[in-house]
Specification:
By secondary structure, the chain is an alpha+beta fold. It folds into two domains: 103 residues, Rieske Iron-sulfur Protein, CATH 2.102.10; 293 residues, no CATH class. Helix content is 24%, strand content 26%. It contains 14 helices and 22 strands. The strands form six sheets. Strands 12, 13, 14, 15, 16, 17, 18 and 22 form an eight-stranded antiparallel beta sheet that branches. It has a four-stranded antiparallel beta sheet with strand order 5-6-7-8. A three-stranded antiparallel beta sheet has the order 1-10-9, with no helix packed on it. A hairpin with a 3-residue loop joins strand 15 and strand 16. The longest helix is centred in the last third of the chain and has 18 residues. The mean pLDDT is 91.
Amino acid sequence: MMSDEQNALITRITPGTPAGNLLRRYWQPAALAIELEGARPIRPVRLLGQNLVLFRDGSGALGLLDRDCPHRGADLAFGRLEDGGLRCPFHGWLFDRTGRCLQTPAEPDGSKLCERIRQNSYPVVERAGIIFAYLGEGEPPAFPALDCFVAPDSHVFAFKGLIDCNWLQALEVGIDPAHASFLHRFFEDEEQDAAYGRQFRATSADSDMPMTRVLREFDRPDITVEPAEFGLRLVTRRALSKESTHVRVTNVLFPQAFVIPLSSEMTITQWHVPVDDKSCYWYAIFTSFTGPVDKDQMRTQRLKLYELPDYRPRMGRFNDYGFDPYEQATKTYTGMGDDINVHDQWAIESQGRIQDRTREHLGQTDKGIVAYRRLLVTAIGAVERGETPMMILDAAQAAAIIGPATMDGVGPAGGPDSYWVKVDARRRESAPWYQTAE
């Protein structure tokens, strides 16, 4: 358990809070690049409790400004893209993407007011279909050489979804290898198809055993948590027999992402990004190690479960997550359909909009969550002391953060970690883009 004060320390992220100061030291996903397509590339963004407006100017360059006009506070998300910037419709004040005031047209001739006005602006960059923003002070860190950033655009797909709770409890579902044996249990093994959210229906590497059977029949995992240069590596083993063991390798990418295997051919890098203290978005980049991804198909699949323009889920508290008691008795452990994202959403949202950790009782299988919270508290303390927390990288350091490796396979019982290392190396050797990237 922890105190109310400790819980607030690691969950509250609005401007001026300790955790908020930490997260502002890193690049944060702010929007999908596709959200700025179309005739009017302007998008309101709420990120880390701040109201912002994201846009492309007439040259196509990205800009991110505070959303309230510095004249009288009108909403710049309703602005006009013209004359090289974003113009407020209230009195015509014009700002470029750096926040410089270009015009105050209603002021008298010769007015110097415009020269004294500067709207807050923030660095933005597009990577792998996501627009990242930096809300902190000073120079932003370099991007690590993650697979999702190294692979060509043809081999990555980005998507997002809104979650109605605090970012930390949403992130912690990805740091919990034990929950999959229950929350994502299916009573029938089916072949993996093109449907979204059925990643646990695929077979593990080096076997013909569906993950559904592994998770259903072998529900006492042995979890090892290892420190890594990028955060944490979690190795989860489930003994299948005297000869074989199911091995799953996942990673915590500090400060608020994880990297997991989707199949033997694809991985997911997923961030949980605070909108404010009580809601967040998940942003995911799917990376293919084989052929190009069908972006149109993947987006169409996912939009069956999420509504535009805000990527709100079609299942939630408002409709009991589609719960069906007959299905729970006969088909799935939750009774909430085939999409494991709905399962996760229920698990984390049902804890409340900010989980009360003073009432929790952690067990041995929660060791990854415990290790991550310690990293988080240590990093918060470092920022409070004026020190540099982990994963604030220069160019050379960023180039050394490769991968990180993930896998889901069946290897020899009691074997060393060389098994999953070899599986990951084998996948990379077969990826045409990985050899090119090297």
